[in-house]
Design a protein that fits this description.
four-stranded mixed β-sheet; 8 strands; 7 helices; binds pyridoxal-5'-phosphate; alpha/beta
Length: 211
Amino acid sequence: MIFLANPNNPTGSYIRSRDLIPFLHQIPSSVLAVVDEAYLEYALAEPDYPRLIPRMDDLPNLILLRTFSKAYGLAGLRVGYGIAQPEIIAALERIRPPFNVNMVGQVAAVAALADQQFIRSSVQANRRGKIYLANELENRGVTVIPSAANFLLIKVAPYSGKTIFQRLLTRGVIVRPLDEYGLPEYIRVSIGKPDENCFFISQFRKMWRNG
Ligand SMILES: *Cc1c(COP(=O)(O)O)cnc(C)c1O
């Protein structure tokens, strides 16, 4: 099985269609290709972000994973889905636990799908917040990795991500240190609402200045 997250967590980077499509076509038929599209809604406006559903008939070993936990804001309901050829779904059905997605979650997911205006405004707010945060940090000489998702990967060297995590915690901000991902000098910051983004910047600035 080949597992790709597109966009990727925690980097926020993404694989372009011109790279991904030829790669998927090269995979042997005995190998399942799983593309985790948890952050798809945020990435659709990025240059050459892959649209895989129209190509699925030519890629029989592909499964796409989607979730209602991110742009749809329903993480607490634990709803997601996969898209694949009927043969792959049938194999998954044999091992799927009964009631793995509860009825309340399913009803909420269907209602959420119908509210695409919410997705548009949520994605737009994310894009604005991301630009604001990246500008504020880069203006202070902090390296920010370009992100197609709803978070930013920020380099905090010469400090460790753990140190910055601890210092921001005492100031009322929770970010994620990334040693577990092999990125000890980085933190991941979720894009928030405008006032939350401002609060993060004000606390980060004070902490950065005071060392
Ligand atoms: C959040 C996330 C998911 C989806 O998580 P669920 O809440 O379990 O649906 C899947 N893949 C990645 C990379 C994620 O960040």
